[in-house]
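re: ur question from earlier - yeah i can do the single chain one, its not a big deal. heres the input i used so u can compare w yours
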Amino acid sequence: MSKLDRRLMIAGLLSLPLSATTAQAQSFDLNDLFKSKAQNFSLSNTQASDGIRAALEKGITTAVQTVGRAGGYANDSDIRIPLPKNLQSVQRSLRMVGMSNMVDELEGALNSGAEKAAPLALDIFLDVIMNMSVTDAVGLVQGSGNAATNYLKSQAMPKLVKAFTPVISGALSQTGAYGMIDNISGQLSSIPFTRGLAGDAKETLTEQGVEGGLNGLFHYVGKQEAQIRNNPAARSSDILRSVFGG
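and the output i got, formated as tokens:
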């Protein structure tokens, strides 16, 4: 199944009205179904599976749209990515003498790189959702807090890191971050605490962008899950309302 087919399948799930079979399942109390050994348990399992997939699809789409735009990280104090620690010390020292402009621009380039990489997460997330077992889905519906977000993180993180690393590296290069490190190092080579800056910073800058970028994504996936679980107004489709109430 192609990536386009997977997206169309999920879009259809969210937009189509519930079938007669699903409507029949709505007449039962899901909590009772989960706790009992009723013969219709498999029907509620299917509904739970569709519901948690819809919830995660809504969460990841909103998260990617939120952070994957200009200023998505840089202008959000909750997820803004700071410089690596070795550069933070340089930034603080230069700020005291009014010379931090170059390093501040480097932090902006780091966040810009994460904003460009974020949309790549969508297909990886969708693969995890489509391959989720019914058993896992039922457990996530019964879970609380950010159970679904944690599941998504556990299943997707290795692939996300692998996918994000070269993209973040390329984005940092395109946004001028690596060149900026060389520029800062060259201009400040006479200042003792900046010696060796370029080599050390380049080794950690990409890792910082990958970690910060993914943390920001999951921050918003978790917020969406919490809203769906706790706020009926956030349940914007029939399947979400049937599984989570409202």
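The CA atoms of residues 57 and 223 lie 13 Å apart. not sure if urs matches, ping me
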